[in-house]
Amino acid sequence: MSDKPARRPRRYLRSRITRKLILDTALDVFLTEGYSKTTIAKISQQAKVGYGTVYSHFKGKDDILNKVVDNVLDEFYNLLEVPFAPASLEEARAAYLELVLTSFRLSEEHRSIMKVYQEALGQSKSIAAHWTSIKDQFIKSAARSFEYSYEKGFSKSFDHRIVAKAYILLVDRFIWEVVNEKEHDLELVAATIVDMLFHGYFELKPKGRKR
Question: Which domains does the chain carry?
Answer without folding.
Answer: 10-58 (1.10.10.60), 69-201 (1.10.357.10)
